[in-house]
Automatic annotation (TrEMBL):
InterPro entries: Rer1. GO terms for cellular component: endoplasmic reticulum; Golgi membrane. One of its GO terms (biological process) is retrograde vesicle-mediated transport, Golgi to endoplasmic reticulum. The keyword Transmembrane applies. Belongs to the RER1 family. This is Protein RER1. The chain crosses the membrane at residues 41-59, 65-83, 146-163.
Amino acid sequence: MMDGNDLASETTRRGIISQAWTRISQIYQGTLDKWTPHTKGRWFGCILLLIAFVIRVVTKQGWYIVTYALGIYHLNLFIAFLTPKIDPAMDFDADDDNGPALPTRATEEFRPFIRRLPEFKFWLSVTKSTIIGFICTFIDALNIPVFWPILVMYFITLFCITMKRQIKHMIKYRYLPFTHSKPKYKTVESTVTVN
């Protein structure tokens, strides 16, 4: 049976663990907040991480299932990145044969393109999954022998079919998931004559 001192020490121990976890979470979130404005640097680091992963897989000649699963997951993230948050296919009007569309002319109402998966979350998910995949390459139990050319051909086929469907969706509902810069409006210059 526990007495008062044992109960108090256990409560204190839980409090210390909770405080430590909260502090680690704050440091993690602070680091992510500092990285947010550095888009090019984040993606450069992510690409370096992917290159290191590919080099490890090629030099060790294994973990093709891990690589395939990582590729499928990255494809899924990319499709979510290209898809609008409010899918026009789900907002179908019975009156319109083609369904709703994003505005394409200046006279139509402006609706900004909002992604289902924002760029930062896309980067974060790709980076986390690549790190997990890299760690998996150190576990021999995950090195399942497969004939890798079949996996490559299946991934290429899956990528082509998925991207074809996504491009058709973009054409049908007239949206472009990329913006290059803010729109610049022309001002009408009035000439003022002074007598």
